[in-house]
Write a structure and sequence with these properties.
FAD/NAD(P)-binding domain; 8 helices; 24 strands; alpha/beta; 7-stranded mixed sheet; binds flavin-adenine dinucleotide; 4-stranded parallel sheet; 3 domains; globular; 21% helix; single chain
Length: 424
């Protein structure tokens, strides 16, 4: 087991609220480490809607999810936070008064005075590819994230996907694995062009393989993979020997202007979405730029896995066939609470109840900010999480520095705060 890492504050979750907490803690001289299951900072903003605009961050008329993440990373730079990405916090134990030991699934152990849970909706769940029997290999040979690169040392590794995660891990694991094969259903990638070029260069140098197709089956025994069966769009099915597989079927989806024609289908003519978005959608329908159907899909039509249309039963029971190549069903996100449920903290409908003077949980020294917490009047907005982070830091200070008095200061007028920010 690795050496225990000591820090003032441990932040679980590097979403926007976890990131801003670093800033508020830093102004008060508290050092923070952050842990996140994802391999990047930014939480929902970076993982679910990096290119979508946000319009309600105070003082910033418009910023994308990725833009906000980058701005927060720049803002907290003076405080040198340490990130532990691709790790999931599994255990939080009380070891002092206050004092906590936090353990991750990568075996890292932290000791800290204060824990800040900024875990959002809980842990993102990877999409499981539709391969029969894949569950039997999960955790042994099939992994949905890279927690420790060494797990893949000298393995014949099959990476499946065409996005940034698939390409980034391909490039990182080629020097470690015995042989890496990247499989994607077509020879076009959604990943950064630079990564795609690097991957193609490795293929040209025969340092890795690129295979076109989709995994249709797995071979092996006792959870140990020996081969994957694959089918290309054109040509014969084939068999690929491998000991480990990393499927990356990311969560981001692009819509709107990139599609030839979009039809929105909903079972009734009322929407739970933001009124502004509903208005925009109705304006597009009125302008003939997209379709709106009220009903439910009863049947899909197509051949060889290629969709050609869908049968819709309308609210008036009339049946209609529409032509389509792709269906994007949005029936809510699956984010499981995950291990938070086992940390001995009171929960309410899978959220962490907090008091509202410092957003502290039922355990003194453990705070919860952002989407994960609940209190009367809670709004799941980024700006609420920012406010919660500021008040949390004020109380956390007394746990970290029990002997010191806290003096309230403005960043505009305090030379001491400006020195910490590196601007004075
Ligand atoms: P998150 O962003 O959910 O981040 C939590 C992080 O914690 C995740 O990265 C997760 O991997 C990590 N985590 C969870 N459990 C663990 C664990 N056990 N160990 C390690 N890490 C863990 N809000 C607005 O204010 N304005 C908007 O316009 C807006 N638009 C949105 C559009 C969409 C499509 C969506 C989905 C959300 C939108 N939101 C918007 C909501 C906003 O994104 C959330 O309120 C915000 O992301 C919450 O931030 P957070 O830091 O609390 O949690």
């Amino acid at each position: 087991m690795s050496e225990t890492i000591k820090t003032d504050v441990l932040i679980i979750g590097a979403g926007p609220c976890g990131l801003f907490a670093v800033f508020e803690l830093g102004l008060l001289d508290m050092k923070a480490h952050l842990i996140d299951i994802l391999d990047k900072a930014g939480g929902q903003c970076a993982e679910l809607y990096p290119e979508k605009p946000i319009y309600d961050i105070p003082g910033i008329p418009m910023v994308t999810g990725q833009g906000l993440t980058e701005a927060l990373m720049a803002q907290i730079k003076p405080f040198h936070p340490t990130f532990h990405l691709g790790e999931m916090v599994e255990r939080v134990e009380k070891i002092g008064n206050p004092g906590f030991r936090v353990t991750t699934d990568a075996g890292n152990v932290f000791e800290c005075k204060v824990v800040v849970i900024a875990a959002g909706g809980g842990s993102f769940q990877p999409k499981r590819p539709p391969v029969p029997g894949i569950e039997a290999y999960e955790g042994t040979s099939v992994h949905y994230a890279v927690r420790k690169m060494d797990v893949f040392r000298d393995k014949r590794l099959l990476i499946v996907g065409g996005g940034d995660s698939a390409l980034d891990w391909t490039l990182n694991l080629v020097p470690i694995a015995k042989r890496v094969t990247l499989m994607h259903r077509r020879d076009q990638f959604r990943a950064a062009p630079d990564s795609v070029n690097k991957m193609k260069a490795l293929v040209a140098e025969k340092k890795m393989d690129l295979a076109l197709g989709q995994v249709t089956g797995l071979e092996g025994a006792d959870g140990r993979l020996t081969a994957a069966l694959a089918k290309p769009d054109k040509g014969d099915p084939y068999r690929l020997e491998c000991d480990a597989m990393l499927p990356f079927f990311g969560l981001t989806m692009k819509l709107g202007p990139v599609a030839r024609r979009v039809t929105l289908l909903h079972r009734r003519d009322e929407f739970r979405a933001a009124p502004h978005s509903v208005e925009q959608m109705r304006a597009l329908v009125a302008a003939g730029k997209m379709g709106l159907k009220i009903g439910q899909v009863t049947e899909l039509k197509g051949e060889g896995g290629k969709l050609s249309g869908a049968t819709i039963k309308g609210s008036d029971n009339l049946i209609e066939n529409i032509a389509c190549d792709t269906i994007l069903p949005f029936f809510g996100l699956t984010m499981k609470l995950g291990p938070v449920a086992d940390w001995g903290i009171e929960l309410e409908h899978n959220l962490v109840p907090v008091e509202t003077s410092a957003f502290e949980t039922s355990v003194p020294g453990i705070f919860a900010i952002g989407d994960i917490n609940t209190y009367p009047g809670k709004l799941k907005l980024i700006l609420s999480g920012f406010h919660e982070a500021a008040l949390m830091a004020q109380k956390a200070y007394h746990y970290v520095f029990p002997e010191k008095r806290l003096v309230f200061q403005y960043t505009t007028s305090s030379t001491s705060l400006q020195k910490k920010l590196g601007v004075a």
